[in-house]
Amino acid sequence: MLALPDRSTRQGRRDATLFATLYDTGARVQELADLAVRDIRLQRPAMVSLTGKGRKTRHVPQDGSTITLLAAYLAEHRLDESGHDDYPVFFNQHRARLSRGGVAWIIRKYQAHRC
Fold it and tell me: Which superkingdom, per the lineage (predicted)?
């Protein structure tokens, strides 16, 4: 499923980055939906900070391929510029934070392609 998004489109790059981040962090869908720009550190040691149930935060180290995708995605959307720390990393066409349902819809869309 990680190879299904069409990376030549903006939406496909978002979906590929979302899948890689979800897979490599082991995040719950809600943790991914709540991810803000300030929660990503691209410099070594690269990591993603996830806040889960009970407001507990865990710091998940990331490998080169996911960090490369995240860096390119943040740059494409200009989220790597100052003043964007509180912006959601993953958002819908209205630039609103993706909901759990939105993430589930994206996953189902690609599952349908596999069948």
Answer: Bacteria
